[in-house]
Amino acid sequence: MHKLMASARKEFLLLIRDIGGIAILFIMPLVLIVTITLIQDSTFKTVSDAKIPILVVNNDHGNVSETILQGLEDSNAFEVNIKDTEEQAKDLVFKGKFQLAIIIPEDLSSGLAQKVAQNVDGIIAKFGIEDETESVTKPKIESKEVKLYFDPATQISFKNSVKNGIDKMVSKIETQSIYKAFQEQISDDASEVIFETENFITFTEILPKNNNKELIPNSVQHNVPAWTLFAIFFIIVPLSINMVKEKSQGTFVRLRTNPISYATVLGGKTLVYLVVCLIQFVLMLMVGVFLFPAIGLPTLDISGRLPLLFVVAIFAGLAAIGLGLLLGTVAKTQEQSAPFGATFVVILAALGGVWVPVFIMPKFMQTLSNISPMNWGLNAFYDVFLRHGSLLDILPEISLLFLFFLATTLIAIVYNEKKNTV
Amino acid sequence: MIKIEHISKKYKNADNFSLSDLNLLIHEKEIFGLLGPNGAGKTTLISILCSLIKPTSGSFSIAGLTYQKNKNQLKQLIGIVPQEYALYPSLTAFENLKYFGSMYGLKGKELDKKINDALDHLGLLAFANKNIDTFSGGMKRRVNLIASILHNPKVLFLDEPTVGVDVQSKNVIIEYLQQLNKNGTTIIYTSHHLNEAETFCTRVAIIDHGKLIVKGKPKELIDNSDGSNNLEDVFISLTGKALRDHA
């Protein structure tokens, strides 16, 4: 125990003597979390502060195009700019000046009205409401095409969401036109309401509740756990560098001749770097609770969750440290450990679902994700932050994190023994 | 004290043996010098005796103990002063020594006293609380030495302990080592300073190409070598004048 504490004290002294290193260790994750949350916050807001400028070429000038334009304005997501020609709009979009151009075709309103009237007439004739002898050969009405031009750099998710939105808008206009046509055919009184055009089926999102209070996830509740975990795992970079430095300085050679086990050496590092992880975690929480509301972001709600959050942070920290110990044991130079460590954390984060949710990943990647310690940590954090889980709920994840720590540390010890045993 | 039997060492991918069938007996309380040109195998032999690398074949024991059977006992018995400054640059001399002393189970006031006494002996007490990265080469060498003797080792291995230091630092180090030897520590050291070895060592062995060329008391070796006035003459006559550059 004396040797372990002496090792931990030495690690502590080495850390506090490297002021630049400490600043990077604590400040950069905070900068990261504030930046990412500010960027992602708009996607969680129903009303965005920033509107996306788009182009519309209205070749129709009828009631349908007016409804589309009104719908775009009402969405509050777009700043509509009208252009005269398709060529102009296309050119601007493909040059990246605008994300999107919508080209409304000529005679869309009249064409739709004709098509609907033709269909309604046909139906009514079938029911014998009108005299079938009046029917003549129906002219073929060409379908109309609303063209969408996207900036090639536009993300697929944005494209899909715009396409879905316009599709929904057009469907609604078509439906309302059909109802209107029926109404005109059936009733002579234009003011009489026969059809209710409002949606019969609506959607309500049911959120989990705690003490009758709905738990509404916001960007902060999503971002803080994800990026906190990312920062915690980045500990493997300074930790592995610390170990590689010991080899290059020759202090590791001295330690090998001392009557101290490698496990004790690693134990000292584990204790100190775990404290670093927890300080990082506390700083992240403080940013979420105190700084975010001050800069207009939602507050991080940690009420009643603090003990469980610390449990997850401790086990996530241990898993990260285990990985750092293994990397530091195997790597021979800082040129090996630093780039590998940093890249590996990014890969683990991607696999863990920090950027893209696991459920939309390809099947193979989903399987890989299951063996990413960052995925276990993220799920445990989400269990606590968003699903209001108990200790029992996070037990599987924290057990996996602990086993990961044991396995990586054990491999590091065995590797070191194999390499250095005389 | 140290019995080396048929030790050979060939590094991975190396063409030649670094040590070849080496036999040596070093007695208790000796100051034994391992001399040889660059690449002769001196550091390899010390590294083997300190359990840093495995011999390819052969065996050795220190005070009747082997690493295979008495690893921790043996580590407690020996001290090693590596060729490089095996110290933490951002820690003070005292913090470095406190840490390495703790690794031998030393603690509290006893350890503090040992550190302060040794620093005082080697003229470093005034610099105890200065970071190692502010020290000169000679000062680092002295702290490097103290870090290896705080636990009073029975056997002290020194790999080029006076390389790159000024005359004053060298004298302080040599005097301190002689003091340790008087108190019962067996010293095995490697050096390129043959004049230093001639006066400092009770016995020396000259190694070349991994083989033991000759061993004995410096004076005897000089007397037995025709035309040699000092150990350097003996060394040149046995190992030749050819450069020993190797990569």
Automatic annotation (TrEMBL), chain A:
Q: Offer one Pfam family short name for this entry.
A: ABC2_membrane_3
The record, for InterPro entries, names:
ABC-2_transporter_component, ABC2_TM, ABC2_TM_bact-type
Tell me the keywords, alphabetical order.
Cell membrane, Membrane, Transmembrane, Transmembrane helix, Transport
- Record's bilayer topology term: Multi-pass membrane protein
Give me the segments passing through the membrane. Answer: 12-39, 224-244, 271-295, 307-328, 340-360, 394-415
Any idea where this protein resides? Answer: Cell membrane
User: PROSITE patterns in the record, alphabetically?
Assistant: ABC_TM2
Q: Which GO terms describe its molecular function?
A: ABC-type transporter activity
User: Which GO cellular component does the record give, naming just one?
Assistant: plasma membrane
Q: Which domain of life is it from?
A: Bacteria
Indicate the segments forming the ABC transmembrane type-2 domain, all copies: 183-419
Similarity comment text for this entry: Belongs to the ABC-2 integral membrane protein family.
What's the name of the protein? Answer: ABC transporter
* Species assigned in the record: Bizionia arctica
From TrEMBL, chain B:
Organism superkingdom: Bacteria
Keywords on record: ATP-binding, Nucleotide-binding
> Pfam families, per this entry?
ABC_tran
What InterPro entries does the record tag this protein with?
AAA+_ATPase, ABC_transporter-like_ATP-bd, ABC_transporter-like_CS, P-loop_NTPase
Gene3D superfamilies, alphabetized: P-loop containing nucleotide triphosphate hydrolases
Q: What is this protein called?
A: ABC transporter ATP-binding protein
Q: Which GO terms describe its molecular function?
A: ATP binding; ATP hydrolysis activity
**Top-down, what is the taxonomic lineage of the species of origin?**
Bacteria, Pseudomonadati, Bacteroidota, Flavobacteriia, Flavobacteriales
Mind telling me which PANTHER family this protein's record contains?
LINEARMYCIN RESISTANCE ATP-BINDING PROTEIN LNRL
Domain ABC transporter residues, every copy: 2-234
